[in-house]
């Protein structure tokens, strides 16, 4: 990479050979992992058992063990995982469910589908996860549940959340869609609440080749109920005992996920290493990176930072071939679809500030040291 001397950094960048850095690149999956996935898929196609086949059962067992939970039930998506958890826990019309404004809509829609009323609170300024003090203040006699979101791969403040739930007789559904393998004070995400919803969307830390989701829980009765709900409410073929739906994790996806699960600890480690390099290389620049709590294992589903002139920096990076994301550009309470909701009239300053200043950098296993350095030196050039 030849760099001209006697020029400012910005002009130097123009002289460099353009390195493009994708935001996410699944094609970098190591060949050995790819082959194992191909083999696993072949097994399924040979056996012709595509719905709730043996692989679903095997993956559910492996993922429950991975999460230190008693059970896992594979479902069609992360949204469904949260929805069926809420339904099985008995959310009824008028029940309030407290969650955080700084999240993806996939946390909110299941509350509404379950006939609950979402009650939003703001996020913490330093970690950007749900603020437990605001949760405590939002509890009313109608509150039934709390959904803490382990956002960007960092666990929410679970001790405080669980204490509020216990004091007020509430259930807790962890939104673990972005936190496969993350831990909080030694406890794995997915093992702390009454239930947890995971997404296996392809770009997640544990991603399928399509949509998929899973509920983890330590409650066998709840697991059995969700096992029926996701399969037309059946206890056995044509015995429809509860109100259900078709929301099963596909057998092919389960076979793929089982292989990828064996690589997940290394993949999470790779993400942590990338995040460490970003933190070190960006330390001298005017960017704010959310704190990483010393008592968590953050799995960096996203590497986010807050910066003034976000949009200008983003287009500068784009011109240099560096893709970025924004998680999330429009806060939940400002989305058109929720314009008539009670929470649309409220303001959540931390969430709003984050939406205006947030930028997510490329992070995925296989991102090279050279690419990381290119991203950080380009950000540095922007500021010089
Ligand atoms: C925080 C959060 N919750 C819920 C979901 C919903 O998951 P899915 O897209 O698998 O339905 C997602 C997915 O992106 C998410 O990031």
What is the C-alpha radius of gyration, as a whole number of Å? 22 Å
Note the total helix count.
12
What CATH calls the topology of the largest domain is Aspartate Aminotransferase, domain 2
Spatial order of the strands forming the largest sheet: 1-9-8-5-4-2-3
Largest sheet entry: 7 strands, mixed
CATH top level of the largest domain?
A: Alpha Beta
Going by CATH, what is the homologous superfamily of the largest domain? Type I PLP-dependent aspartate aminotransferase-like (Major domain)
Distance between the first and last residues' Cα: 20 Å
Give the CATH architecture of the largest domain. 3-Layer(aba) Sandwich
Order of helices and strands: HHHEHEHEHEHEEEEEHEEHEEHHEH
Distinct ligands, ions and cofactors found in the model: pyridoxal-5'-phosphate
Strand count: 14
Kindly estimate the percentage of residues that lie in beta strands according to DSSP.
Answer: 5-15%
Blueprint (SSEs and pairs):
Blueprint: H1 9-15, H2 31-47, H3 54-66, E1 71-75, H4 78-88, E2 96-100, H5 105-113, E3 117-121, H6 132-138, E4 143-147, H7 158-168, E5 171-175, E6 183-184, E7 187-188, E8 195-199, E9 213-217, H8 220-229, E10 234-236, E11 239-240, H9 251-282, E12 296-297, E13 303-306, H10 310-319, H11 349-357, E14 358-361, H12 369-383
Bound molecules: pyridoxal-5'-phosphate.
The site of pyridoxal-5'-phosphate (PLP) has 15 residues, from helix 4 and helix 5.
Commentary on this structure:
The protein is an alpha/beta fold and 384 residues long. It is 39% helix and 14% strand. It folds into two domains: 9-18 and 263-383, Aspartate Aminotransferase, domain 1; 31-258, 3-Layer(aba) Sandwich (Aspartate Aminotransferase, domain 2), CATH 3.40.640.10. Helix 5 links the parallel strand 2 (96-100) and strand 3. Helix 3 runs parallel beside helix 9. The protein is globular, with a radius of gyration of 22 Å. The structure holds pyridoxal-5'-phosphate.
């Amino acid at each position: 990479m030849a760099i001209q001397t006697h020029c400012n950094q910005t002009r130097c960048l123009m002289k460099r050979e353009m390195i493009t850095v994708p935001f996410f690149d699944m094609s970098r999956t190591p060949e050995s992992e790819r082959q194992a996935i191909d083999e696993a898929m072949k097994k399924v196609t040979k056996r012709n058992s595509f719905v709730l086949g043996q692989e679903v059962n095997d993956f559910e067992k492996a993922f429950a063990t991975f999460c230190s939970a008693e059970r896992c039930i594979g479902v069609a998506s992360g949204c469904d995982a949260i929805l069926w958890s809420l339904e099985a826990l008995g959310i009824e019309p008028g029940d309030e469910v407290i969650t955080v404004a700084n999240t993806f809509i996939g946390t909110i829609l299941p509350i509404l589908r379950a006939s609950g009323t979402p009650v939003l609170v703001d996020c913490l300024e330093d970690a950007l996860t749900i603020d437990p003090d605001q949760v405590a203040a939002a509890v009313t006699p109608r509150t039934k549940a709390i959904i803490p979101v382990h956002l960007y791969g960092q666990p929410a403040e679970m001790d405080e959340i669980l204490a509020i739930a216990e004091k007020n007789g509430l259930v807790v559904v962890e939104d673990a869609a972005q936190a496969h393998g993350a831990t909080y004070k030694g406890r794995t995400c997915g093992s702390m609440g009454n239930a947890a919803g995971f997404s296996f969307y392809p770009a997640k830390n544990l991603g399928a080749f399509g949509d998929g989701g899973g509920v983890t829980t330590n409650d066998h009765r709840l697991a059995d109920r969700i096992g029926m709900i996701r399969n037309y409410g059946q206890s056995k073929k044509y015995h429809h005992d509860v109100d259900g739906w078709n929301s099963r994790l596909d057998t092919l996806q389960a076979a793929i996920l089982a292989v990828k699960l064996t690589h997940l600890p290394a993949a999470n480690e790779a993400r942590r290493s990338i995040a460490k390099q970003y933190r070190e290389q960006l330390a001298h620049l005017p960017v704010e990176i959310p704190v990483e709590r010393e008592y968590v294992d953050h799995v960096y589903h996203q590497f986010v930072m807050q910066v003034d002139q976000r949009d200008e920096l983003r287009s500068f990076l784009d011109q240099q071939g560096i893709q970025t994301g924004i998680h999330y550009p429009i806060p939940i309470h400002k989305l058109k679809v929720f314009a008539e909701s009670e929470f649309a009239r409220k303001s959540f300053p931390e969430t709003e500030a984050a939406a205006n200043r947030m930028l997510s950098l490329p992070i995925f296993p296989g991102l090279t040291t050279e690419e990381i350095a290119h991203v950080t030196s380009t950000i540095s050039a922007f500021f010089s």
